[in-house]
Specification:
The complex is a heterodimer of chains A (about 325) and B (about 325). Chain A is built from 13 helices and two strands. With about 325 residues, chain A is mostly helical. In chain A, a hairpin with a 4-residue loop joins strand 1 and strand 2. The longest helix of chain A has about 40 residues. Chain A is globular and about 85 Å long. Helix content of chain B is about 30%, strand content about 20%. Chain B contains twelve helices and twelve strands. In chain B, helix 4 crosses helix 5, helix 5 crosses helix 7 and helix 7 packs parallel to helix 8. Classes of the chains: A mainly alpha (about 325), B alpha/beta (about 325). The structure holds adenosine-5'-triphosphate and magnesium ion.
């Protein structure tokens, strides 16, 4: 319980730090007054706007106000789109979230079983092939994989769309591409592109983790107890590989979020990544500040989830936690 | 009645090819029903590998290149992995050295006990649980019912080794291979665990192959003793005779190197020199470079086991320790 409070406190601290960076960006990169009233405004107009925006208040007051608004999801109006930043992000978030989750699903769904296989059959032909292929997967840049996939499956074979999100269904607070065939088809290539690198990473990690655990004393002792192979591999070895796996997957989730910018650009996927690229080009500070906070929030929540899941798996962590 | 364990000509090599170096070379010994055979020898002598070979747990590159292993008259070497599994844990129990790492940290000890029981015996969850609790109380774990739900890290080293013993005896094995069961423990706990092992073995009529560095442990509970040197048997015989009148100069050196029977001896500094490395055995008797009595014959011909009183010793001049003064030796 104390552990949970401490962790929650740490999370809040990290978020506050991110908010500070985000606030400094918002306040000191460019002049917000300029962006609102335009270059031609008179000095009096400027002063009035400055007063109205509260820019003359002490920094700490301004920061508190910024945090207070951020908590309510208010980040002001985008310079470029002249829309509330929260609305813009709300429109784009579902696309990125679905892409990221699908990519992680690909990475885990393939990476874990293949990693297990290569650990259990270390000398098999399939193992050697997979290990070689995975090296290529690690070495190839993500955008190149995307372009090759587009070339093969969209241009040559014409099976799958090369860009866009397909038809989406609006659920009110969320627009999903998962309910239409065209939406699902459009998801395949970007998700593969984004997930492939993670898959090879997870595969190699599961493999080395499993190999190490299979050599450990307690597995030897379990063998000496005559346990059956499935029990040995899943109940004993795999479960012990799970905590490092969960930790890595948590970290990678953040990376996938970051890499999604590349993939969204390649596939013209209408998500946050694409939005942020545009925001950077136009120095759209409110949007960037909000994105920064969102990324920090995502990381913080994932870390919290990793700690919780690991505490469920490992009684030693649980004991420390209580 | 056939012996509980019979090892005949066991040879283990490092690799599978013809010229692969021998880690265990033509090793033969028996363990009688209900008997405790102590196995001693310097680090690297091949004690653990002998135990692993019996359990069928040799991992590549180690390879059982020859010999015959029988448990209660049934041959078990060369069995398929599936067939071997019904021996391990069922009729052959095992105790490893370090109780801190022998148990799976993520499963309760109750779970580890019941899974072992249910793997080998046709029991439902409730009766397996009952048996597990009874086992825990037999090995002296206090409040066994509550301990069923404990994870290994919540128990002390001594308690964990008791749990490991409960696991080894879970399905009433006829043979238990105990590989240095007390080495990793506190001195104050060691005697308790040794006493427990002996009691369990006597009560259940199980035979034990007890690997140890500790001559004190041997003196306390072994019926017979086997001394290994460089993967070969140097001497074997009844504990009282062998400890009193060791026939092989190596055993004599071992005995002389014990300043205090209760103290753990890892190295044997009183015997100068060191055991030959794997594949680097000298000609003749492997021990001759360290032996004060070595003659031309010892350097040229390898001695076979010969009877010396009630013991068997692989030495050309067994017995007669009067001329053997370890501190006067000059290793060559
Ligand atoms: N997996 C392996 N690969 C290569 N050599 C090995 C392997 N396992 C054991 N050996 C060698 O085999 C020899 C016998 O090892 P073993 O573990 O049986 O010794 P031991 O008598 O149990 O020693 P200790 O008292 O240190 O436990 C040693 O020289 C060791 O180096
Ligand atoms: Mg050993």
């Amino acid at each position: 319980m104390v552990f949970m409070l401490i962790r929650a406190g740490q999370t809040a601290g990290v978020l506050l730090a991110a908010a500070l960076v985000s606030f400094l960006l918002f306040r000191f990169v460019g002049d917000p007054v300029n962006n609102i009233v335009g270059q031609g405004a008179s000095v009096e107009e400027r002063a009035a706007t400055r007063e109205a925006l509260g820019l003359n208040d002490p920094a700490i007051v301004q920061f508190s106000r910024f945090v207070g608004r951020a908590v309510q999801g208010e980040f002001g109006v985008s310079y470029r789109f002249s829309q509330p930043v929260a609305d813009l992000i709300g429109q784009r978030l579902p696309a990125t979230a679905e892409l990221t989750l699908a990519a992680m699903l690909v990475a885990l769904g393939l990476g874990v079983p293949l990693g297990m296989w290569t650990a259990i059959k270390p000398r098999g032909v399939l193992t050697q092939t997979l290990l070689t292929l995975s090296l290529i997967g690690v070495a190839l840049p993500t955008f190149l994989i995307g372009i090759v996939l587009i070339l093969v499956f969209s241009v040559w074979l014409g099976w799958l769309p090369a860009f866009g999100r397909g038809a989406v269904t609006n659920l009110g607070w969320w627009t999903t591409g998962l309910l239409t065939t065209s939406g699902l088809r459009a998801l395949i290539l970007p998700a593969l592109t984004l997930g492939l690198f993670q898959m090879t990473l997870i595969m190699r990690m599961v493999r080395s983790e499993m190999l190490e655990i299979l050599r450990s004393d307690h597995i030897r002792f379990s063998r000496a107890r005559g346990l059956r192979r499935p029990a040995l591999i899943y109940r004993h070895a795999f479960r012990n590989a799970l905590t490092p796996l969960v930790t890595i997957v948590g970290l990678q989730f953040g990376n996938v979020f970051a890499f999604s910018i590349v993939v969204e650009t390649v596939f013209q996927w209408p998500g946050l990544g694409l939005l942020v690229i545009q925001a950077i080009q136009f120095a759209d500070v409110p949007l960037l500040a909000a994105y920064l906070l969102l990324v920090a929030l995502t990381f913080a929540l994932i870390n919290l989830a990793v700690d919780l899941v690991n505490a469920v798996i490992d009684p030693r962590i649980r004991q420390e936690a209580l | 009645m056939s012996p509980a364990l019979s090892v005949n000509g066991l040879t283990v090599t490092l690799g599978r090819h013809q010229a692969a170096p021998k880690v265990i070379d033509d090793l033969s010994f028996d363990v009688g029903p209900g008997e405790i055979l102590g196995m001693v020898g310097e680090s690297g002598a091949g004690k653990s590998l002998t135990g692993q070979a019996i359990l069928g747990l040799l991992d590549p590159p180690l390879h059982m290149a020859g010999g015959r292993i029988e448990v209660a008259g049934e041959r078990i070497d060369g069995l398929s992995e599936t067939a071997m599994r019904s021996w391990r844990g069922r009729r052959i129990g095992a105790v490893f050295q370090d109780p801190m790492t022998s148990l799976n940290p993520l499963l309760t000890i109750g779970r580890q006990l019941t899974e072992t029981i249910r793997t080998h015996l046709p029991m439902n969850a409730a009766s397996a649980r009952e048996r597990a609790i009874r086992l825990l109380s037999e090995v002296g774990v206090p409040a066994p019912e509550e301990r069923m739900g404990a994870y290994p890290h919540m128990l002390s080293g001594g308690m964990r080794q008791r749990v490991v013993l409960a696991l080894a005896f879970a399905c009433d094995p006829m043979l238990v291979i105990a590989d240095e069961p007390t080495t990793a423990l506190d001195v104050s706990i060691q005697a308790q665990i040794v006493g427990l092992l002996r009691r369990m073995c006597r009560e259940r009529g199980a035979s034990v192959m007890l690997i140890t560095h500790d001559m004190g442990v041997i003196a306390e509970c072994a019926d017979r003793v086997a001394v290994l040197y460089g993967g070969r048997l140097a001497e074997i015989g009844p504990a009282d005779t062998l400890l009193r009148e060791p026939a092989h100069p190596y055993t004599q050196g071992l005995m002389a190197s014990i300043p205090d029977m209760r103290r753990r001896v890892d190295m044997l500094p009183q015997i100068p020199g060191s055991m030959p490395r794997v594949g680097g055995a000298p000609s003749g008797c492997a021990f001759h470079p360290r032996c004060s009595r070595a003659t031309a014959r010892c350097r040229a011909e390898r001695p076979d086991l010969v009877g010396h009183g009630s013991c068997l010793a692989a030495c050309w001049m067994p017995g007669d320790p009067s001329g053997f003064r370890p501190e006067a030796t000059h290793a060559g």
